[in-house]
Amino acid sequence: MKKIFHKIVSKKVLKFFGILSLFGLSLLFLSVLFKVDPSTTHVNSFLIPDVLNKTYKERPPVILVSFADGPQVFYKNQFSLTASAADKGFDAIYNYRRGHFDPDFYARNKHILEQSRGSGYWLWKPYFILKTMESSPENALIFYVDSGIILKKSLTPLLKKFESSGCDMILMGHGKPVPLRQHLKKEAYTAFKEELTPQVLEHQNIWAFFVAVRNTAENRAFIKKWLNTCENADALTDSPFDKDIQASDFSGHGHDQSLLSVLVALSPQNKIIIPRDILRKEYGIHNFHRHPEEEFKSPLFIAAGIPQWISTVIWNNVLMVKLRQLFSEN
């Protein structure tokens, strides 16, 4: 009798926790849908002052720039970025692809752009940033982010950075600053007219999957210099490379990032560098860069601000990834 009673109680307890778990999962999925639905987003009057001011007042636009090329997953990454950015404060979004190059520029740099690594060693990055700057109003704020980024938070804190005196460019550094010499091959030193002094080489290395610039003549000249330096294949690419002449603490050439790091070290004025982990935690710039083998993992929960471990366990487990793949094929 006692065993039967325990069995009945156990079944009821299991049923109760089963219902409770199902209810909890339902609430979780609903919260995700509510958070990523741009049609119900609160209209922030700081980001869109027009909502309060019914009279005309000119203001420079805030523009998002990204680039996609290669396997389909990289275009899907760009789709996800665009969706996450829709209600964050951008006035315009430019999704660039290979067909958007100027024909003369492409022909001149074909030997770099048709190399597989980085879809042309990331030469397209300064090119499309500059292209956007040249076609945008003065003082427009242009945010370049890699297509694998998910924007989890409003742009408000970053835009307020630009309001502070002495900020015309926001860049991303390592969590713990790393000297740029560790990521700059010696063969690239001659690409710069300026002397790369020990002080310059000690300046922190820059991650270039996030670059935000105010569109000014000075910044256009800076980005153009970055582009021109990147057009030097010997400086940008992995060849030539002699491991015997590198700095003792050299850990690998960072291509476009390394060349940008030098230019920032040579001209640090009006530039703010935010550590990568701070940019992610406080400003919501989250890297969810999928490669072909991860094509059917989804950033949806990440975009809603759900912790990554919950996203992995519930939304990107093996079963969900397989189901996503099956549905995408039909």
Structure at a glance:
The protein has 15 helices and 8 strands. It has helices spanning 2-36, 72-85, 103-108, 110-113, 118-121, 124-134, 156-163, 198-202, 217-230, 233-236, 256-266, 276-283, 300-303, 308-315, 318-328, and strands at residues 62-67, 92-96, 141-145, 149-151, 169-173, 206-214, 271-275, 285-287. Strands 2-1-3-6-5-7 form a 6-stranded mixed β-sheet, sandwiched between helices. The chain has a two-stranded antiparallel ribbon with strand order 4-8.
Description:
There is one protein chain. The chain is α/β, with parallel strands linked by helices and about 325 residues long. It has one domain (about 60-295): Spore Coat Polysaccharide Biosynthesis Protein SpsA, Chain A (Alpha-Beta Complex). The longest helix has about 35 residues, at about 1-35. The mean pLDDT is about 95. It is built from 15 helices and eight strands. Helix 6 packs antiparallel against helix 9 (about 215-230) and helix 9 crosses helix 11 (about 255-265). Strands 2-1-3-6-5-7 form a six-stranded mixed sheet, sandwiched between helices. The chain has helices spanning about 1-35, 70-85, 105-110, 110-115, 120, 125-135, 155-165, 200, 215-230, 235, 255-265, 275-285, 300-305, 310-315, 320-330; strands at about 60-65, 90-95, 140-145, 150, 170-175, 205-215, 270-275, 285.
Count of all domains: 1
Number of strands: 8
Lateral arrangement of strands in the main beta sheet: 2-1-3-6-5-7
Percent of residues in β-strands: 5-15%
CATH class: Alpha Beta
Helicity range of the residues?
Answer: 40-55%
Structural class designation? alpha/beta
User: What is the helix/strand order?
Assistant: HEHEHHHHEEHEHEHHHEHEHHH
CATH topology: Spore Coat Polysaccharide Biosynthesis Protein SpsA, Chain A
Coarse shape = globular
Overall pLDDT: 93
Largest sheet: 6 strands, mixed
CATH-derived architecture? Alpha-Beta Complex
What separation lies between the terminal Cα atoms?
54 Å
Radius of gyration: 24 Å
Helical segment count: 15
Low-confidence segments: none
